[in-house]
Design brief:
2 copies of one chain form a homodimer. By secondary structure, chain A is α/β, with parallel strands linked by helices. Chain A is built from 13 helices and 12 strands. Chain A is about 45% helix and about 15% strand. In chain A, helix 4 links the parallel strand 2 and strand 3. In chain A, helix 3 packs across helix 4 and helix 10 packs antiparallel against helix 13.
Amino acid sequence: MTPGPTQVPEQSLLTLARQVTHHRTDDFRALFDRVQAGLREILQTENDIAILCSSGTGGMEAAVVNLISPGEKMLVLHSGKFAERWSTLGQTFGAEVIRYEVPWGEPFEADRVAEILAAEPDIKAVFGTLCETSTGVGHDVRAIGQVVKDANRLWVVDAISSAGIVQCRTDQWGIDVLVVGSQKALMTPPGLALLSISPSAWQKIEQVDQRGFYFDLLAYRKAKSTSDTPFTPPKSLLAALAESVDILLQEGIESVWARGVRLARTTRAAVEAIGLELVTDSPSTAMTAVKLPESIDAKAFLARLESRFGLKLAGGQGPFRGKIFRLAHMGLTDDLDIIGALAAIELVLKEQGCPVQLGAAVTAAEAVLAENADQKQPF
Amino acid sequence: MTPGPTQVPEQSLLTLARQVTHHRTDDFRALFDRVQAGLREILQTENDIAILCSSGTGGMEAAVVNLISPGEKMLVLHSGKFAERWSTLGQTFGAEVIRYEVPWGEPFEADRVAEILAAEPDIKAVFGTLCETSTGVGHDVRAIGQVVKDANRLWVVDAISSAGIVQCRTDQWGIDVLVVGSQKALMTPPGLALLSISPSAWQKIEQVDQRGFYFDLLAYRKAKSTSDTPFTPPKSLLAALAESVDILLQEGIESVWARGVRLARTTRAAVEAIGLELVTDSPSTAMTAVKLPESIDAKAFLARLESRFGLKLAGGQGPFRGKIFRLAHMGLTDDLDIIGALAAIELVLKEQGCPVQLGAAVTAAEAVLAENADQKQPF
């Protein structure tokens, strides 16, 4: 239950075991079109979808090199490890990076973004994050999108660990480029980065001279006109993604988002019931980041969860290293998975000397679930 | 039986169907080390192996951006579609590309390479191809490697469609960077590019300022010191690759190469027995490219092979479009697969009006196989 890679549904795993066939074929084109149509529904967009064979970072690199020419200004909303990656990418490729920085664990203010954009008319695009995976903060992508749109700039959002579980209305919220990874809420093995690209983004991309080669999005758009990819696609992963997307669509994207909200509320209520504190007051519904009591050794705590219960959670990064744990409620996760994880957490905390009342976390979790008795279990 | 993606062994496919687990773990590190050790044996190298999540083209881009700074000279040995990709990559990233061009289907002369390197002392590296997939030419990577080494330059070889079936002694032949794809002779789905990198290549890479971000090989080297990857690796594909590598090593790399030679000789003898002509006098043992009689419509021929016999071959590219077919004898291909393919070829040629003697191709093939009665079947 780390924030990715997540569990993959059986139906998608079995697809991976099917023999590999060629990709310049009608069956590939049908698969390719089907997965794009499904992704458009999940991401709530009419925009083009580019599918890259890379990790999520490759998708972020594609967004930067296609949208920003060397010397141009980009604004990065900076609040954690993955926001930092936007800056590093911009600097690597010669952009002038302007930062709006808030402490790890805090959200951005849309008004401040508006001020910066007003003061810096040369900023071409704003780069932000839907869920900052290092802190569990859910940023207000809708409100920021409004000010970015009002200032007539491009809005680029890293939704790698959150699209497909956190509400994300790409078009309504004015997101010009959304970057998503296969291995998080989309329940597919790592290896695919997905980008939705708005008409305004395409206009800017056409003006950028040096878009690289492997990540040149115009090559992907050109190939897509015949339902092809510019380079050999990882067809097995695409076939698995198509299955996982179908599973999400069968649940319905609004229901998936509601499940994320329910599991997040359940988790927060439970950890607070045993006296733990959340890392942020603005938590995402993709995951919950929780401060550990000072008496608890984070490494030993995570190791014991894994060795005793087979439960893998994530620890902290950067300033939170050794101080927090992160539990994801995305992808193939349902009510009882969360209940089990919470039981394991309180049992191991108790075992490691923390004065928790056994059962308190699970009791608080059940109280939230009791209020949601009519919500169906998807898996 | 196209030159990739090729069939994947059952054992590797079943591995793909296993649940995805996290990668910052001891089991991942063991897998990662195991697959690198296996690849070093297959590629006959002691060099570092970098494993990228990308198509083969991503591996080629990594070689170019890491070795050549903008404005530096690179020599491209130019004889087909994939050699052309080296040039395009060089130009895209600001290198000064010098070409030694021979017509499609012809090999390079090592002496000419030596002359060019003597005349152009600023050339930093030579970029060539082990098997040019668009023409089926097997280039003399050993002889060229010798002159490149004598001239104290770097030798970079695209072996995407050939390493693991064509003899390739990376270290003995002085290959500084070898680029390999997962989906060809290595019998794994597409999605991984593998590079072997010599100490001399690392020295040059350290001097290049702008190596990109996703493809920055120094980040891969740094992560590899702890058996990690810089970005989320496609663990499922890596696990499948480990299985396929084991299968090749069980056969033994020398036996694999011998199988390639045998299947190539068998194929050539058979197509010549029915009056067809090879595209090149310097064929690779990875694949055979064959000219079609003018009376045959290539598209209809390939479509009929597929619809009647379920046999997928590749057609021509560039100047060979509509004029040739290409049959690969790499990966999960044994004697009887080749016999079947040859039977299909002569049956469809006959059906489409070509005056072939039915059975002649297969008879010639059997004559070659009869001389090789002691060679074991690997699969």
